Amino acid sequence: GNSVTQMEGPVTLSEEAFLTINCTYTATGYPSLFWYVQYPGEGLQLLLKATKADDKGSNKGFEATYRKETTSFHLEKGSVQVSDSAVYFCALSKIGASSNTGKLIFGQGTTLQVKP
Amino acid sequence: NAGVTQTPKFRVLKTGQSMTLLCAQDMNHEYMYWYRQDPGMGLRLIHYSVGEGTTAKGEVPDGYNVSRLKKQNFLLGLESAAPSQTSVYFCASSPPATSGLYEQYFGPGTRLTVT
Asked: What are the residue ranges in chain A where pLDDT is below 50?
């Protein structure tokens, strides 16, 4: 079946450090891939997405590239800030299937804590 | 636009009690979803709806029922609450997948404790 695996957290970094959060997926066909972010006490917000192989999603300094050959969608940021402290979720959706319902399959989430 | 709203924000129930969680969206979205979030398990889909009057089971539907009588509202019911249903519940909505717009919009969540 379809699944998403994220690196275990929590991840603790100093401000301005480089961030990588690994995400790999298992899916048949060609899923769309997403990163969602959840700030403390809030719901999830879409951070970025990629809908086909080699697409790069980017937003707020975060980037992720859809790598079909390694079934990965790793999240990166060159210089993190304290305000980036949140939980990050990788997710996939099987767009294009005849019974498509837009359902998302989430990874378990990775907590990022950035210290000043 | 208020986006997706959820009522209530917090609730404590005793085992065996019932309750209904309300989700409302003002974006005219066709699709709506109910998830639960538990530590270390990400979000798991409980039930979803692809249009007014339709509902379907997700990954973890047991112990829950839903209704979508109006396009803008999606209700989640617990008929007989159990401690295993202690969780944070999120509602989300999205345009239909055929639109090519894939983003789900999430509400702020309802924190439910069953004692």
From this structure: 96, 98
